[in-house]
Amino acid sequence: MSKTLLHLSGLTKAYPGVIANDDVSFDIGAGEIHALLGENGAGKSTLVKMIYGLVRPDHGTMLLAGDNFTPAEPRAARAAGVAMVFQHFSLFEALSVAENIALGMENPPKANALSTGITDVSQAYGLPLDPERLVGDLSAGERQRVEIIRCLLQKPKLLIMDEPTSVLTPQEVTTLFTTLRKLKADGTSILYISHKLEEIRTLCETATILRGGKKVATCDPREKSARELAEMMVGGKLKSAKLQKTTLGEVVLKVSDLSLPPQSAFGTSLKSISFQLYKSEVLGIGGVAGNGQDELLACLSGEVRTAADAIQLNGVSLGHMPPNTRRALGVLAAPEERLGHAAAPDMTLTENAMLTAMTRKNLSHSGFLDWPRAEAYAKLVIDQFDVRTPGPHSAARSLSGGNLQKFVIGREVLQDPEVLIVNQPTWGVDAAAAADIRQALLDLASRGAAVIVISQDLDELMEISTNFAALNAGRVSDARPMAELSLDEIGLLLGGADAAA
Amino acid sequence: MLQLEKRPNPSQVWGYLAPILAVITTMIGGGVMFALLGKDPFEAIRTIFYDPLFSEFAWYYRPQLLIKGAPLILIAIGLSMGFRAGIWNIGAEGQYIIGAICGAGAALSVYPLDSVFIFPVMILFGAIGGFAWAMIPAILKTKFGTNEILVSLMLVYVAEQLLASMSLGLMKNPKGFGFPGSRNLQQYASAHNAELWTGTAIHMGVVFALISVIFAYIMLARHQMGFHIRLTGESPKAAKFAGVNPNKLVIYCLGFSGALAGLAGMFEVAGPSGQISIDFNVGYGFTAIIVAFLGRLNPFGIMLAGLLMALTYIGGEIAQSSLGLPSAAIQALQGMLLFFLLALDMLTNFKLKLAKAEVRI
User: Fold this and answer.
1) A contacts of B242 (beta carbons < 8 Å)
2) Domain with A11 in it
3) Are residues A337 and A459 in the same domain?
4) Is A39 found in the same domain as A64?
5) Is A501 a member of any domain?
6) Which of A70, A344, A364 sits opposite B224 (nearest CB)?
7) Residue A146: C-alpha distances to residues A149, A151, A154, A156, A472 (Å)
8) A97-A100-A104 Cα angle (round to 5)
9) Same domain, yes or no: A347 and A316
10) A166 and A277 inside one domain
11) Residue A228 — φ and ψ, nearest 5°?
């Protein structure tokens, strides 16, 4: 911690219309785990891209171990000892671990030597991994290990990790942290990007917080509360969603033995899913991406049809019904992908209001569309959900992620659904908007609707769910009251161990 | 260096400006091409774009504009519906031929019966013929996932063979001295698609073209079907989420464009052309693709584009006879129009920017 490894001074990078980084300066010490905190759009990725040689700064200097550091491309950064693990993996599923690692190296050693190297590194840092296995068979956590080992084989001085825990179960997170602490003990510096504050408080000794492209502070996260850190990130007081104690009403939605074959070559199949949803309940369905979240939502929204009896609303079978018939009955949904699924990017907000509200808001009279009413409804959503936009004539793609998500959720909530299913409602949304969205979902439930929140964010589910179930490899575990579950139990459920079994 | 930057909202100004600029750049590009062919570029461009409208013989050419424009507009309106939804009917030429054969067949089968019902029945048969021909790619696509571009295009050549067989066999004029081709419907009063007002060239097809423009406009702007078509074109996944049934949309779009192309063929065979013959079709079905895009898939835009394209046809013919320009040069000119339009269209959604050189530290 005494010695500085990477010195950043006055880094500035402007893109047309936005200054992504504005005069950012801080130091990363040798053998330090340094957190980089900030909301989406705060400039974290631009900063990291400059360090990794993907983007050149407009102004400013970087010194690596005292020498001028101006990487023109990632290869130069790697040669200087900077490695990076990206949030999205770049691995070939049909190749083995060793082959994947060899592909990412400039001068890969012979296959045997490489396998030995992989085994050595994996043992040294507690990252169990068989070099001969096919990547296609690995879990997300194991795939991340492949990426980490690929970096470690280059013996980096600085390892950059972008949101590494977003795809991991709590157990896998613990393993990862052990590895990172070992690396730190060996003198490797780690730049750790995350917005999960509790993680940062347990792992990092220094944190730099960015807001709107500017550095807000560099501090010791262990001395601050998660709330203080969050407020530095947002630059204001934070509301937290409050779950009102309500007694659950009768069963509204009954899903029984819902199965679905894979819809594409890489799709997940749903296997005999059964659960019940009560009035006023918020059912949190957790799980790591790719375990059937999109498929489950598509079955419930009506985009994919199943056996009629598999889904029943108040005793009415609707598994065979198309989306608009379900909407008429009160089953609404908001898919994960905002642009291109929940909303059409190039269409206006008015047209996007028409997209799902046509039936329930009476915007269509014998096939003819009532655009003035649709516009009024879009305006209502914009007002009630504090969507920041010039008006309902703006194209959906011109809104920021958080604002568009508020519009999408608001569009469904204001239709007074009996059942609302949302997938990743706050993914990539800034903290303030996320809090508003969660509150809106809770308010909806307290008014008597039943809500299903499919999410990969455990903190979010713990905050708002009445009951929790895990989605693993297309199966949903038995729902259990959130309050009774420990983090360990949740981790086991996410890993596929059904506590009831 | 120039760079393209996506606009947050599509530019309205460029939406109107792009087609106008496309016409101007086509005149320049065409002029260069004509100069290279050894012709006076200014005279050639004047002959093609100005003479049909304002020369001393314009009284003859102006009505021609409607005769050529009506089928183009009628077909392009149909195609534009599908194009907006990403359903590519490339075989309107085939549907046009089948519409003509069915329409003419209906009349020839009752010849020489005299009745006011014959012409309406011909209209109906023309539409049904084109519709049925378009249903082949539609059903193959929805049932077996075949590519409608290939199937509809291939069926053009099947239709052409059928047309040849009809003019040499089944529909051959028994009093035609052995020449290929059917009886001339212009001489069969009950079946003749005659001018509604003498000297104006306005026949029933022109009226139908106008109706189709208005119909398409209402459909797209006010009706659920049109909204679903636009939505599917913008974002198929969002459309599915909204409850659009993609198969129904394929049937509807291909059926609608097929029926309109069939109508165009029927009005042509019963009017300006008069008879089923081997060389009855002159490429309206293909040119309408250009018209649809030149009109930005907007009904009123298509109406103007159809007239503009008709102008290049007529002007092209004059230029061929008076300046000796090869007909291929006229087709190249029409192609240029589409090319420049698509290029300039980028500017509706993108801004041109001078890229700043990145500063080295």
Assistant:
1) 323-324, 355-356, 358
2) 4-234
3) yes
4) yes
5) no
6) A364
7) 5, 9, 13, 15, 22
8) 140
9) yes
10) no
11) -60, -40
B62-87: per-residue pLDDT in tens?
A: 889 999 999 999 999 999 999 999 99
Count the domains in chain A. 2
pLDDT tens digits for range B14-29: 878 888 899 899 999 9
Strand residue runs (E) in chain B: 2-6, 350-354
Tell whether B143 is within 8 A of chain A (Cβ). Answer: no
Which is it for strands A251-260 and A270-278: parallel, antiparallel or unpaired? antiparallel
Quick one: A15 and A125 in the same domain?
A: yes
Which secondary-structure segment (H or E) carries A85?
A: strand A82-85
Q: What residue type is A105 in one-letter code?
A: M
**CB neighbours of residue A214 within 10 Å:** 15
For strands A251-260 and A311-313, give the pairing: antiparallel
* Span A322-349, pLDDT tens digits: 999 999 999 999 998 888 899 999 899 9
Residue of A50, A321, A347 to mutate for B, most B C-beta atoms under 10 A: A347
Please check whether residue A245 lies inside any domain of the structure. no
Please name which of B306, B313, B358 lies closest in space to residue B334, comparing C-alpha atoms.
Answer: B313
Instruction: Judge contact between A331 and A299, C-beta under 8 A.
Output: no
The band of B358, judged by pLDDT with boundaries at 50, 70 and 90, is very low
User: Which of A170, A202, A234 is where one domain is finished?
Assistant: A234
Structural domain contains residue A246: no
CB-CB neighbours of B247 under 10 Å: 13
Domain boundaries, chain B: 38-325
Counting every residue, how long is chain B?
361
- Smallest CA-to-CA distance from B8 within A39, A348, A81, A130 is with A348
Query: In this complex, which of B225, B234, B353 lies closest to A347 when CB atoms are compared?
Result: B234
Residue type, B2: L
Taking the CA of residue B264 as centre, how many other CA atoms within 13 Å lie in the half-sphere pointing to its CB?
36
CA neighbours closer than 13 Å in the CB half-sphere of residue B326:
8
Joined together, the tokens standing for residue B43 give 């005279």
Estimate the crossing angle of helix B118-144 against helix B92-110, to 10 degrees.
Answer: 140
Q: Are residues A332 and A384 in the same domain?
A: yes
Q: Which helix (H) or strand (E) holds A189?
A: strand A189-193
Give B349's contacts in chain A (Cβ within 8 Å): 346
Q: How many CA atoms lie within 13 A of B331 on its CB side?
A: 8
CATH value at residue A303: 3.40.50.300
Q: Find tokens 């009752």 and name the residue.
A: B110
Residues of chain B contacting residue A371, judged by C-beta atoms under 8 Å apart? 222
Strand order in the sheet with A214-219: A82-85, A158-162, A189-193, A33-37, A206-211, A214-219
Query: What backbone phi and psi angles, to 5 degrees, belong to B16?
Result: -85, -35
> Do B241 and A398 count as a contact with CB atoms less than 8 A apart?
no
CB atoms A16 and B5 under 8 Å: yes
Query: What digits encode the pLDDT tens for the residues B279-310?
Result: 998 889 999 998 998 888 999 999 999 999 99
Best CA proximity match to B50, nearest among B318, B295, B291, B300: B318
Residue A244 resides in a domain:
no
- Is any Cβ of chain A less than 8 angstroms from the Cβ of B247? no
Best CATH choice for the domain B38-325 from the list 1.10.3470, 1.20.120, 2.60.40, 2.10.25: 1.10.3470
Residue showing tokens 């809106």: A440
In three-state secondary structure terms, A234 is: helix
E strand or H helix at A104, and its extent? none
> Which 3 state secondary structure label does DSSP give B177?
coil
Q: What angle do CA A230, A184, A75 make, to 5 degrees?
A: 90
Q: Of A234, A267, A295, at which residue does a domain stop?
A: A234
Let me know whether A367 and A222 are in one domain: no
Question: Which residue, among A62, A327, A346, would best test binding to B if mutated, counting the most B CBs under 10 Å from its CB?
Answer: A346
Whether pTM > 0.80 for this model: the answer is no
B71: preceding bond cis by omega (within 30 degrees): no
